[in-house]
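In this supplementary section we document a worked example of the pipeline. Step one takes a protein sequence of length 375 as its only input; no multiple sequence alignment statistics are reported here. Step two produces a three-dimensional model, which step three serialises into C-alpha cells for compact storage. The input and output of this example are shown verbatim.
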Amino acid sequence: MTEIIAQDEPELEDSEGSEDLYVHFKIDVDPGQSPMRVDKYLAMHVEWASRSRVQAAIESGSVKVNGRDTKASYKIRPSDSIAIVLPKPPESASILPENIPLEVFYEDPYVLVINKPPKMVVHPGVGNLNGTLLNALSYYFMNHSPCPPSEEEMISRPGLVHRIDKDTSGLLLIAKTQYAFTHIARQFFEHSVHRRYYALVWGNVENEEGTIVGNITRDPRDRMRMAVFPPESGKGKHAITHYKVLERFYYTTLIECRLETGRTHQIRVHMRSIGHTLFNDHRYGGHDILAGTIFSKYKAFVHNVFKVLPRQALHAKELGFVHPITGEQMKFVSDLPDDFVKAVEKWRSYYHNRRQLLASEGTGENIIEELNDIL
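The serialised model returned by step three reads:
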C-alpha cells in the first residue's frame, strides 16, 4: 500500500517555501510480495519516479526501509515499511533560455547560490511565462557557467530546491545534478537548512524575541492568501518562525526571522497573525498605514517610503546547508538591497529626529508640529 504523507495544494502564483516542493511517500510492502530490488520496486510503485531518481534518493539517504538507510541492491521482503522523500517533478521541462543577468554568490559542479533581486519571479506560471529565474538559469548554464555538470549528471531543468516570492529578495540555492537535488531535498524536508530573513514590520514589536507556532493553509475567504490556525485546529501544516528585534522606529520594527519550516508565505502570515504585518505587503494589507500619527505630513512620509520600497520588506539574508558531495557546512550572507536600505534609513532618521524632539524642551502638540515640519 502506498500512502502519500505530504501532498501539497496547488501553488500560489508567488508561492514561497520549500516543503511544498517535496513529496513524502510511505509504502508498506504487501505480505505476498516476492523479493525484488528496492530501487526497481519503488520505480514501479511511485509515479514519475524513474529508477535513476530512486537510486539518487537512496544514495543521498532519502530512502529508509524499516527506519534504516538502505542500498539500491536491497531485496525487499513482505511487510517491509519503506519511506522515501522525493522532489516533485517539474510541470514542464520546456523552459525558454533568456539572457537575464544573475548575481552568482557561489558555484561548483553540484550547486549554485544566487542573490535574487526583487520583482523577479522564480518560475514560469500564469501571467509570468518569461523573464523568470528559471529562464535566466537555463541561459546561464548553456552560456556562462564556469563548471556545468556533465551530460549524464545534468537534470532536465535547473533544480529549484526552495523558492522565495517575486517581491522577496535574497539567497536561493539551486541543485545542478540529480544527486545534489535529492540530497538537498532531504535537508529541507528534515528542516536542517539554515535560513534567516530580515523584515520590516508595522508596529512596535513588544518582545525582544519570540517564537510563533501556527498551522498555515489557504485562507478560506481569499484563495490567493494564506492564513494561520491554532495547532490544535487540525487545519493546515505545522509551521514555526523564530523572530528577534534588531531595531525599533516607533511605528515600525526591523526584525530577523529564522525558519524551522518553509511554508508558503510563512513569515508574512505568521507576523501578521501577531499584529505586525510586513511593511508594504500588498497581499496582506501592509500597503496601508497600520501604525503612527494622524498628521498629514506623517502620512506623506510613509507614502514616500512606500515609493522607495515598492514591495514587501522581506529579504532572505542567510542560507546554510551541508554540501551534498563534500559534507562541508556551507553558509552565505547577502547584503540588504538598496531599496530596503533606503527605507530603513528613512525610518531611522524619523526615529532619531523624534527622540531629539522629545528630549528637547518642547512638549505635546509643539513636538508633533516640529516633527512633521522635519518630515
